[in-house]
Design a protein that fits this description.
Length: 320
């Protein structure tokens, strides 16, 4: 219910954000940043509780046997700490390998690919994902593979920024998203998330914004999903030249990331860039340092690299 309420509020942003709107949302973000350690500790407590379950011997016939607990740990770590996410994904693979169930093995190898992707290890992620994408005939698993392979190629396109390779990566990414759409239920949340990304990458601004607003207005979303959608909308508003609305949405995304204790994130970094361009140096400097701390904590190499590109400018102009 809380997520639905937040989604509804997001749709009430004015067509053109004024200075008061921006000031209000940035103050809300500053307030959440002061509580960042609280959300971090809540995440640690959840993880410790799951680890305690693992250390407690239970009958393997119980609904929560070893492999399921390892999967729960991976899900907690996947946007929080790369090393641990990778470790528990590989442990999960080891557990399910004993079942000789190809679907479970495919599911586990997808989780390993996700961890590699999130850490910016794109070549290693593709080696894992492409090689294992045909292990399962289950549509939901094939959907996950195709979507993540597409996202990996898009990240490579953004990271390389090369006139020759970027268009190739974009084309391959779009092809994988087309395949992903074939493996999910039409008009579902997954369907619209992929369709939104396809239109975003093609810079079909009106179509993509409509899809993302539909997602916010229609479905129950996690904080992580809200952060992804609002960050995507910020990019689209920038394409329209509406930097104030982009700032508003990035602040919403950053707040959602804090609530989720997400360390593998781009919202604060992008927000710092937007504020720097508007001359708000002090706030931009604070935000970029938070973003850098998160990138180092998670060990996201591509995020650290991107932040390092703009950090010297902020260091040179910061009043501190």
């Amino acid at each position: 219910m809380r997520n639905k309420i937040l989604s509804f509020i997001l749709l009430l942003i004015p067509a053109f954000c004024n200075a008061q709107d921006i000031d209000s949302i940035l103050k809300a973000l500053d307030s959440k940043l002061k509580e960042k350690n609280i959300y971090h500790q809540e995440k640690v407590n959840r993880i410790d509780s799951i680890k305690q379950l693992i250390s407690t011997k239970q009958d393997k016939s119980s609904p929560l046997f070893e492999s399921q607990k390892l999967l729960l740990l991976f899900d907690e770590y996947k946007t929080f700490l790369y090393d641990s996410a990778f470790t528990y994904a590989t442990k999960y693979l080891h557990e399910v390998s004993e079942t000789r169930n190809s679907n479970l093995a495919a599911h586990a190898k997808y989780k390993i690919g996700y961890a590699l992707f999130s850490a910016g290890m794109f070549s290693e992620a593709l080696d894992t994902l492409v090689h294992n994408s045909r292990l399962s005939r289950v549509d939901s698993i094939r959907f996950n593979y195709c979507r993540l392979i597409g996202q990996t190629y898009f990240e490579m396109a953004d990271y390389t920024e090369d006139l020759f390779y970027t268009p190739i990566y974009e084309t391959i990414g779009q092809a994988y998203l087309d395949s992903a759409l074939q493996y999910c239920i039409p008009n579902s949340k997954k369907y619209y998330s992929v369709l939104g990304l396809k239109n975003l990458r093609k810079q079909n601004v009106k179509e993509a914004l409509g899809i993302y607003q539909h997602l916010l207005n229609t479905y129950t979303l996690s904080n992580h999903e809200i952060a992804i959608i609002t960050s995507s909308m910020a990019y689209l508003f920038n394409l329209k030249g509406q930097s104030d609305r982009a700032i508003y949405m990035l602040a919403q995304a950053a707040i959602a990331d804090i609530k989720n204790a997400t360390k593998e994130t781009v919202a604060l970094k992008n927000l710092a860039e937007e504020l720097y361009n508007k001359g708000e140096i002090e706030r931009a400097y604070r935000y970029i340092n938070y973003a850098l701390d998160d990138a180092f904590f998670y060990e996201a190499r591509h995020r650290k690299s991107k932040i390092s590109d703009i950090l010297p400018c902020l260091l040179y102009t910061s009043p501190n």
